[in-house]
Amino acid sequence: MKEQTFFNDPAVDRLMGVVFQLASEVYILKDRVKALEKLLEENGIIPAEAVENSAEVLSPEEREKFINRIFEPIIQAEKASSHVAEEYQLE
Fold first, then answer.
1. 16 and 49 in one domain?
2. Residue 85: which domain range?
3. Degrees (nearest 5) of the Cα angle 82, 59, 77?
4. What is the pLDDT of residues 10-31, one digit of tens each?
5. Residue 5 in contact with residue 13, Cβ under 8 Å?
6. How many CA atoms lie within 13 A of 50 on its CB side?
7. Is residue 36 part of a domain?
8. Could you please report the per-residue DSSP string of 25-78?
9. Does this model's pTM top 0.85?
10. Does residue 76 form part of some domain?
11. Mean pLDDT by 10 residues, the chain (91 residues)
12. CA diameter of the chain
């Protein structure tokens, strides 16, 4: 059976496949976190509103680093490729 293609460039199709795989992983993780929160709540370990009322765990600096890392390939393609090269010692 021939692989379906949706874009002119097969690399874009493969990239979209990666995006959808990651989206499914995020969905599973969200589901598992909700299940854990429910069990903790039902067993009286935490009150129902504890998670919603808790302060953010990540500091503003950690949050900003996370956001910058995610968007780095889009905004600064050259910087992103040098970052990957440094991280994996490709230079």
1. yes
2. 56-91
3. 20
4. 888 888 888 889 899 999 999 9
5. yes
6. 12
7. yes
8. HHHHHHHHHHHHHHHHHHTTSS-TTHHHHSPPSS-HHHHHHHHHHHHHHHH-HH
9. no
10. yes
11. 77 84 93 94 91 83 87 65 61 49
12. 54
